[in-house]
Design goal:
CATH superfamily: Aldolase class I
Helix content: 40-55%
Number of strands: 8
Radius of gyration: 18 Å
Number of helices: 11
Order of helices and strands: HEHHEHEHEHEHHEHEHEH
Number of domains: 1
CATH class: Alpha Beta
Structural class: alpha/beta
Strand content: 5-15%
Largest sheet: 8 strands, mixed
Shape: globular
CATH topology: TIM Barrel
Strand order of the largest sheet: 1-2-3-4-5-6-7-8
Length: about 300
């Protein structure tokens, strides 16, 4: 695979009044965002629309996935004041929908679930009309950690599969494909109201049939929302790009996902799990409202 990126992967440089304003808010509150830490290509577009994904529990991950630019190593102790600062930043930004994610914190007994729950509740107190989406790690399969997050009542609970079964172990050391599927299954089996969401990165050596099998695995546990985006190598030493998918191929994958029963599918070369999350939230709210009306 050559190093030259196709034209459809070009993005504008971040800038503008909203971008500068959000940067000031983040720095003033000592916030981290996955937009910056993971070098997301959509930061210019999303921040200009005043949407951002907060990264809690520090900026250092205990795992070393081969596709991810987030720093790995030994993290600092959790900051108990972080939930309140996130709520303050969300209020300052005037958000109606917020996404909160984190690094993996395998060093913590609960994997950071307590800070997730506290962050959700802090935003509920400060901004009762703001919908909350969390993108959680697998908590090493700890059911009590997952339950703690769900009991804080996020509208959407996301957990990314990222890769198809065959390549999963090679790109996500420390993770487990079946454990990720099981996390999403438990959310629905336990009867919580949160919509579930997952994401897959393509271009890491998977086949089309394997992608469709991964979709089927997600739908088998009633996953509601799916995102599909192109893997972009963050730098030397990371997993090489196996191939670039075209916009037409992403459109076909979106159609396949909808045909399989996902309530919403966001698919495109630059799509990431929180890309246009506000629009996804509106769509799933409308779906739920229509379902209740039909009853």
């Amino acid at each position: 695979m050559g190093s030259r990126r196709p034209a459809w992967l070009k993005v504008r440089l971040p800038g503008g009044e909203n971008y500068a304003d959000l940067t000031r808010i983040m720095r003033r509150g000592g916030m981290h965002t996955v937009c910056e830490e993971a070098r997301c290509p959509n930061i210019g577009e999303c921040w200009d629309r005043r949407t951002a994904t907060f990264l809690i529990l520090g900026d250092t991950c205990t795992r070393r996935c081969r596709y991810c630019a987030v720093v790995h190593g030994r993290p600092d102790a959790p900051d108990e004041g972080e939930p309140a600062r996130v709520a303050d930043a969300v209020a300052a930004m005037g958000l109606r929908h917020v996404v909160v994610t984190s690094v993996n914190r395998d060093d913590l007994r609960d994997g950071g679930a307590g800070i997730y729950a506290a962050t959700i509740r802090a935003m509920r107190r400060r901004l009762p009309d703001c919908t909350v989406e969390v993108l959680v790690p697998d908590f090493k399969g700890d059911t009590e950690a997952l339950r703690a997050v769900l009991e804080a009542n996020p509208e959407i609970l996301g957990h990314n599969l990222e890769a198809v079964r065959r390549v999963f172990g090679g790109v996500r050391p420390g993770g487990n494909y079946d454990r990720s599927i099981e996390l999403l299954r438990r959310c629905k089996e336990w009867g919580y109201n949160a919509f579930t969401k997952s994401g897959i990165i393509v271009g890491m050596g998977e086949t089309e049939d394997e992608l469709l099998e991964a979709m089927d695995d997600l739908r088998a546990v009633d996953c509601d929302v799916l995102t599909l985006g192109q893997y972009l190598q963050p730098g030397p030493g990371f997993l090489p790009i196996a191939r670039y998918y075209t916009p037409d191929e992403f459109a076909a994958l979106r159609d396949e996902g909808l045909r399989r029963g996902f309530k919403y599918v966001e698919a495109g070369p630059l799509v990431r799990s929180s890309y246009r999350a506000d629009a996804q939230a509106q769509a799933v709210r409308a779906y739920r409202a229509n379902a209740l009306t039909a009853c």
